[in-house]
Amino acid sequence: MGLVTIVAVESGTKPASPAATLSSWRFDPAANQLEITLEAKTTPNYFLLDQPLRIVLDLPNTQLGKVATQQDYTGAVRQVRVSQFDKNVTRIVLELAPDTILNTGQMVQLQRTTPQADSGDRWVLRPQIARQTSLPTTLPPATLPSPQQPVVSVPPLQPSPTASSAPNELIIDFGQPLPTTAPSVTPPIPTPSPTPSSNVTAPVIVVPASPAPLPNTALPNTAMLSRQSPDVLLLAGTRLNLRYAGESPLLLKAGVPQPAKMVLAEDVRDRNLNAQSVVIDNLIAPAGTTIIGEFETDTRGSRFVAQAIALQGQNLPLAAESGILDAADKVAAANATTIEPGKIVQIRLTQDLIKPGSD
Length: 359
Known about the structure:
0% of the residues lie in helices and 42% in strands. It has strands at residues 5-8, 20-28, 33-38, 45-49, 54-60, 62-64, 70-72, 77-84, 89-96, 100-102, 108-112, 121-127, 129-132, 153-154, 170-171, 204-206, 232-234, 239-244, 250-253, 258-259, 262-264, 267-273, 279-285, 290-298, 301-311, 314-322, 336-339, 344-349, 353-354.
C-alpha cells in the first residue's frame, strides 16, 4: 500500500475567483524550503506519495506561468518538478532522497506569509525532516579481495589516518539495507588499515560482504542474505544509482520502449577484512560503467529496466529495474515525458549478479 496523506490548508466553500497564475517559485536546499508567488488568491493543498517519497503540492484554479519546470538538488530534496496537471490545477512535486525520514507528528509545514499588494500572495512549504542518512563520500584505496569470510565496516564521513582508528564503525550484512540510525559498535580490528587515497573524490556505493548479523539486532528471515559463493558480485536487492549520460533530453511515450545511455553514477565497492584483520577495498565497478537497458512507459508512468552491465570487456546479464519515476505527474498514454541529461535513476537488482565465466 502506498503512503497517501492529503492535507487541506483551509476549509470551507469559496466563491469562484479569477484564475491565479504561478508567477515564480524558488527552492532553498539549505533550508529545505519552497517559496511560491501567486498573482491571485488561491489556497494550495498537499499530499504525500511513497516509492519514492514525494510531496505533491496542488494549486487549484491556477495556471502555470513562465517559470522553470524542473530542477535537481542534493540533500533531502532531490528534485522539484512543476507542471500543468489539468486545465485548472498547477502541480508541484518535491521528490525526497530515499534516506529521508519525515517527522511523524507534522510531516510538512505550509503557510501563507503577509500578502504583497504588488507581487501577489507568497506561500512557503517546508518538509519537516526527522533525520537523513547518507553514504560516505570517500573510501580507502582498492586492493585484491581475500578468500576469507569477511566482516564489513563502513568508514566515517570524515577521513581518518587509518580505517581501524574510526570509533563506532558500522558492521552490516551483505545484502542488508543501511539502517536509519547507526548502532554504537567497536569493530574488532587490531591492526591499522591502509591510509585513504587522496585521489578518490567520487561518491561510492559500498556493497557489504559479511553474513554476520548486526549486534543485538533481530533480522527478518526474508533478509538473511549472505555471499555463499565467490562467483556472486552483487546480491539481489542491491540498489544502484544510474545517471542518464545522453547529451539531449530523452522523450518517453506510453507503449514505446526507449533505449537510453545510462551509466553508474558512483563507484560500486566491496569492503571486507583479510586474514590479518586488515580492511581491504575491492572495486567491483567504477563510476561511468555502462548499464544497458531501456525505459518502459505505460499509463502508470515510466520505469527503467536494466538488461546488462559492461564489465571486464563483456556484457554481463543484469536483472534490475527502477520504481515508477513519474506516477505523481500522471503520465498517460496521450502524454509524454522527458528524461533530462544528468537525471539520477535508482534501480534494484531482482537477481544476483554473477562473475563472468561462472555457472
